Amino acid sequence: MPDVAVALALAWTTLLLVAAGLILLRARDTLQRIVAFDLLASIVIALLALLSYLRDTPYYLDAALALALLSFVATLAAARYYAEGRPF
Amino acid sequence: MLSGLLDAAAITLLTLGLIVATIGLYGVLRMPDIYRQLHAAGTVSGVGVIAILLASVATRNAAVIAHAALVIAFVLLTAPIATHAIAWAAHRRRAVVRDARDTRGHPVPPE
Prior knowledge:
Helix content of chain A is about 85%, strand content about 0%. Chain A has about 90 residues and is mainly alpha-helical. With about 110 residues, chain B is mainly α.
């Protein structure tokens, strides 16, 4: 894969990260903040994958896997806490 | 020949993923209530991220492809559960439905 394509995709994904930050700042209530954090985690996973293609090393994808795990548990705990007043 | 085809497929997948992620983010900014925002957010973590991870085949690096497959499996498993948990919390706390419409686009009065 040409490096130029990956670098362009990295730049565009960084812009998407800024857009997700704007969604987080515009959020009106707690649920919208939870959605915005979920979006931010997804975009950072994509960013780490693109960085891994650019540098040709698999270690950034390990970080992406750990981030996916943490954001999944965090979203689940935050949603359940918002609904019931206790995480589990 | 085959190598060029692989590159073209990877660039197509990257473009598709980025376009879907952009549309999803615009949808989250634009949609009036949390349920429709979740519908738009699901496309980012679903199609968007997975298309970008599938583009790893063009790196021709077995370790990178194996790790990307692991991340794809995990995201496929967990993203719907996380989205469902948020929707369940919204339903449980009686989140407001703004500007409700039926399948023909006519406004529906609130219950």
